[in-house]
Amino acid sequence: MATSVWKGYLTFGLLSIPIRLFSAARSERISLNQLHSVCHSRIKMPLFCPTCDRKVERSEIVKGYEYDDDQYVLFKEEELDEIEPDSGRTMEIQEFVKLEEVDPLYFESSYYVTPEDEGRKAYHLLLKALEQSGYCAIAKITMHQREHVVIIRPRNNGLTLHTMYYQSEIRDLAEYGRTDNIELKDAEKKLAVQLIENLAAEFEPQKYRDEYQEGLRALIAAKQEGKQVAGVSHPQRAPVVDLLAALTKSLEQRPVAPAKKAPVRAISIDKNAKRSAKKVAS
Predict the structure, then answer these.
(1) Residue 59: DSSP 8-state
(2) What would the DSSP string read from start to end of 116-168?
(3) 37 and which of 62, 84, 101, 122 could share a cystine (Cβ 3.0–4.6 Å)?
(4) Among 2.60.40.1120, 2.20.25.530, 3.10.450.50, 2.40.290.10, what is the CATH number of 86-169?
(5) Contact predicate 2/34, CB 8 Å
(6) Domain boundaries, the chain
(7) Angle in degrees, CA 80, 83, 84, rounded to 5
(8) Mind listing the pLDDT tens digit for each residue in 96-108?
């Protein structure tokens, strides 16, 4: 059974849902260690060989893959350069897809893409074409001794690149998505949707902050001054048994979302109709 990385409660209004978090994907790559070329011992930082008991120069370092305890296959930089595919130097767009068709689960790391001076016009042409078409590009790139599939999309007048996990790296979890013996009442679903609508807002990332890091900085400052910081109180939570009652109470404690005003429509009145109306009035 997969090991959870976090367990706790997911709260939804006054609903408290006990959950566990599992890693959805993991990277598969071969790691090369830095070794002392003289004795093939792994280098410690700073560059130090424990076997030779001395610091080493970068010129003495080779790369090696550990296939058994302290047993390495050694590589020269030239050998690694020889097996580098074209994507190590050229990022070729292979196809275009709709961004909404790509499951965010596949996203790994994000990068900004900026053009050199001589490529600005072509860069902006691709940018505008992607914006107008609604498509994003799929390409391959080799970096950090690994070939990545990447997705390139327009964002804020520029292109953003996301490295992606391969299908083989996406992990399955047997209990994920199971709905056996779960029956929901229409009233429960209706109230849940109402609660979502009441909590709906524009996405503003600047509103969110890392409260744990803020607390840690405060703790460091306090300890430096010989003071203590009051701990954070945590409410006691438990799984909700009566969903309908919890949803109703949650809605009662939330302010009702302001109703959107209907747009005012301009009404054109025919000139002949205006004259007729004047005659009737007289």
Answers:
(1) G
(2) -GGGHHHHHHHHHHHHHHTEEEEEEEEETTEEEEEEEEEETTEEEEEEE--GG
(3) 62
(4) 2.40.290.10
(5) no
(6) 33-82, 86-169
(7) 85
(8) 899 999 999 999 8
